Amino acid sequence: xxxxxxxxxxxxxxxxxxxxxxxxxxxxxxxxxxxxxxxxxxxxxxxxxxxxxxxxxxxxxxxxxxxxxxxxxxxxxxxxxxxxxxxxxxxxxxxxxxxxxxxxxxxxxxxxxxxxxxxxxxxxxxxxxxxx
Amino acid sequence: xxxxxxxxxxxxxxxxxxxxxxxxxxxxxxxxxxxxxxxxxxxxxxxxxxxxxxxxxxxxxxxxxxxxxxxxxxxxxxxxxxxxxxxxxxxxxxxxxxxxxxxxxxxxxxxxxxxxxxxxxxxxxxxxxxxxxxxxxxxxxxxxxxxxxxxxxxxxxxxxxxxxxxxxxxxxxxxxxxxxxxxxxxxxxxxxxxxxxxxxxxxxxxxxxxxxxxxxxxxxxxxxxxxxxxxxxxxxxxxxxxxxxxxxxxxxxxxxxxxxxxxxxxxxxxxxxxxxxxxxxxxxxxxxxxxxxxxxxxxxxxxxxxxxxxxxxxxxxxxxxxxxxxxxxxxxxxxxxxxxxxxxxxxxxxxxxxxxxxxxxxxxxxxxxxxxxxxxxxxxxxxxxxxxxxxxxxxxxxxxxxxxxxxxx
Lengths: 132, 409
Fold this sequence. Notes:
Chain A is α+β, with helices and mostly antiparallel strands.
């Protein structure tokens, strides 16, 4: 059926592997997409070598934003923070494997924006973090 | 009153004939955001540019005279449509938002000072909140809000208590764009006047869907937009009582709003031109006039009655869907707006899957974030109806919702 709701997306939305909060955590950041009321928080634990060992997301949002957060966190376990900083919009879209229009793109990119803002230690999550 | 000939009405709207993708026809349930346009409006605007285009109120040549006549004829039609005493009480703006801002910037700045109270409601669209928040910050005003009850109505008892604060202005919607609630405008206005306050009615949703008569309501100001009533985008109306408009300072400065200009001073034009600086959207005004003709020929009472029938059908069918919750009052107390939540499914996903079925609805907070906060909902899905909506389209909506539920089950 709808390409946008590939089985993998619905599956990650309904049964996310990384939903929750980490307390304590090394990095935590949250932001929202006021347009749709989506809210996302990402917590990370990082070892001495700067490698992500655990990750979790919480908040609420549409299937695209939630599945994107789950797939993104799954992909960064075992990666260094440096590697996380290098992640681009295209990396995330490849994980999702779908074509998105401009409105839904914001839903998908919220997770990457929140993740990068947290990893960079920024006080806010500007759109420029996920632009080409 | 004659029932609407829906087949004939639908044939007037070219966009309703299109498919969203091969074999999937459009079901347009987003008229609260903007209404579709009949051929009569498109033809009027086209004819204006092909035959009569010229700047208005300036030239003495034939085209300028024709354009000016078309522009002013539309004003007369619109004044009659809302029951204004005189066309001079009808000011062209860009949209309802600009109309409200005009009142805040001119009447508000000239008349309000620290401590003055403005009463709004919790169900306002951002366009009837933010201009007053801006003015309140600038002038240190106090904003108070008529609460929304659990069933989506205004708490009139609390309103009566708020009136004891002797507000200067009561600004409220006549129909909520989220709940569909039709507010008791006449009563709100009478009570406000009794307490010494002026009133501004946000008619963005009511004027397209109900008979609205400013004289009967005794409204001081009424704001609405053409695009929600089969007219073009980019043109709206501020109605104001003559004496109020005359006493108000101008809004934007420039051509047409002046009588005389010297290097260091100017004198303002008469109403309504005092508020119409610069070259206006003449083709849009002409299209608006055609839209008013179109709706008038069908009759606003007939449109209201038909939408009542459609919303009653939609609410009954929506409420029968397991896990679906409709917000807002019963069909008899609202216009053709059904906002709802589906358990466990985000409104964006609902809207997206419905789109794949050709069904266009809106998802989000519908420019009423405070109302959604009050209802403790981040977002809702909204299906809205108009004179061209059909019972078959309600069926398509329900079938689409069932598909959404199946996908996420």
